Amino acid sequence: MYLADRIAGQKTLADTISGSASFTDPGLVQAAQEVQWLVDNNAFIKGFNGQSNEEAKSEFLNEKAAMYLMGSWDIPNFTTNEEIPKEFRDKVGFFKFPTVDGGKGDINSWVGGPGVGLFVAENSKVKEEAKKFVEYFVTKWGEQSVTDAGVIPATKVDAENMDLPQLYKDLFKEMNQASSVTLFADVQMPARAAEAHLNLIQALFGKAITPQEFAAEHDKALAK
Q1: Do 146 and 162 meet the contact criterion of CB atoms below 8 Å apart?
Q2: How far is CA 59 from CA 46, 52, 66, 129, 206, in A?
Q3: CATH class, range 2-112+168-223
Q4: Rounded CA gap, 187 and 201, in Å?
Q5: Does residue 92 contact residue 98 with C-beta atoms inside 8 Å?
Q6: 137 pLDDT band (50/70/90 cuts)?
Q7: Residue 169, number of CB atoms within 10 A of its CB
Q8: 177-216: b or e for each residue (b if 16 or more CB lie within 10 Å)?
Q9: Averaged pLDDT, 105-120
Q10: Which residues, 6+ apart, have CB-to-CB distance to 75 below 8 Å?
Q11: pLDDT beyond 90 at 161
């Protein structure tokens, strides 16, 4: 998704996931080609396509992998988790997914998803009160998720005056400048299309299909 965002642009990626544009867009096909170029050039560790999340994480924690593309929910492992040696935690930094020469993407465009969602019924008898409570809750959750839970919320939080590890503060600063956040594709798609998407991603990385087939099969899945 990041390669698709950086090459084709956030709007094209979002339109494609919603079904209003085609996965055969040249930028998306190029993103799929870049994935297989990375595979061909040994950018990933041996057996990566069959690893669980915990196995992949352990490669990074054991310093057998230089970089680890992961969500901000993993930040406590690199800041406040006392089970992981402080010497290692102090060495961990982060950087935003790079732009691609000639691509339409923005360095401040992110891929991810908020962790808390609240809905108010349109026909609720206490609709206005509920909306006020949601606003209050989201504000308080934003503050306490940082100070108490050690995770990064989807709301903007001024972390500069909080007693937090520097990695938190640096990431907050960058995320507060986000130009967009594209929700994970499988979360947005209908269930059957999402299942096809996840299988096609695995097949693409495993070189079981071509980038062109990858694009065509996505369109078929979404059309159904």
Answers
A1: yes
A2: 11, 11, 9, 48, 19
A3: alpha beta
A4: 14
A5: no
A6: confident
A7: 14
A8: eeebebeebbebbeeebbebbeebbebbbeeebebeebbb
A9: 85
A10: 150, 151, 152, 167, 168, 171
A11: no
53, 47 Cβ separation under 8 angstroms: no
Q: Are 30 and 200 in contact (CB under 8 A)?
A: no
Three-class SS of the chain? CHHHHHHHCHHHHHHHHHCCCCCCCHHHHHHHHHHHHHHHCCCCCCCHHHCCHHHHHHHHHCCCCCCCCCCHHHHHHHCCCCCCCHHHHCCCCCCCCCCCCCCCCCCCEEEECCCCCCCCCCCCCCHHHHHHHHHHHHHHHHHHHHHHHCCCCCCCCCCCCCCCCHHHHHHHHHHCCCCEEEECHHHHCCHHHHHHHHHHHHHHHCCCCCHHHHHHHHHHHHHC
What is the arithmetic mean of pLDDT over 150-162?
69
- pLDDT value for 20: 93
pTM for the model? 0.84
Tokens read off for 207:
């070189």
**Which two three-digit tokens encode residue 213?**
């087939």
